[in-house]
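Renewal narrative, Specific Aim 1. Our central claim is that a sequence can be written position by position from structural information alone. The example that follows is taken directly from our test logs and has not been curated for this report. It begins with the structure tokens describing the chain, in the order in which they were read.
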């Protein structure tokens, strides 16, 4: 028979089946234990790392959720000294990964809330879609003086590019380095492209 654990968060609740009696392995010489500071590491990363280790080892957590948690890892297969050291290193790596994931999640929380809010509002028909909400700004019209200045700058850049290409003394028998415009001019003249 299973009991149910009721987890209540801000606006929702979840029922999770929990067995009446949970058996966890007792710490022994075939396990490794260490203490982790909750304020330094965070509770969520510690729990996440413990969860990710469950396929390789039995994980037992004990202690105060606000101060310090004792983690005990008991390998599921072959408890050798090398295996225990490997489990400890794997837990440390998973803990570091979980710290980064939770830091990113906390930093992105306002963005996720905004996107969720906008999706709900859009689904309820309270805001228009983004494409209809903001009309595109009218493009600025250039006056004759500005157009002349732009054409002058383009001509200067083209002259500079041609002078740079002319100064290079590397032979190009197949005209590979020629620009598209030069190749088109050569085609019109009947030359080789």
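The sequence written for that structure reads:
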């Amino acid at each position: 028979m299973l009991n149910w654990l009721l987890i209540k968060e801000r606006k929702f609740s979840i029922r999770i089946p929990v067995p009446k009696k949970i058996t966890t392995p007792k710490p022994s010489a075939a396990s490794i234990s260490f203490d982790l500071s909750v304020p330094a590491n965070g509770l969520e990363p510690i729990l996440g790392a413990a969860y990710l280790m469950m396929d390789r080892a039995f994980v037992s957590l004990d202690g105060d959720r606000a101060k310090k948690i004792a983690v005990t890892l008991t390998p599921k297969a072959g408890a050798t000294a090398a295996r225990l050291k490997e489990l400890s290193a794997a837990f440390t790596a998973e803990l570091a990964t979980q710290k980064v994931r939770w830091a990113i999640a906390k930093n992105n929380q306002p963005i996720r809330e905004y996107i969720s809010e906008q999706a709900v509002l859009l689904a309820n028909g309270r805001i228009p879609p983004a494409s209809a909400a903001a009309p595109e700004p009218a493009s600025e019209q250039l006056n004759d003086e500005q157009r002349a200045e732009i054409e002058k700058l383009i001509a200067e850049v083209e002259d500079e590019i041609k002078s740079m290409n002319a100064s290079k003394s590397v032979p190009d028998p197949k005209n590979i380095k020629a620009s598209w415009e030069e190749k088109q001019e050569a085609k019109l003249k009947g030359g080789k492209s």
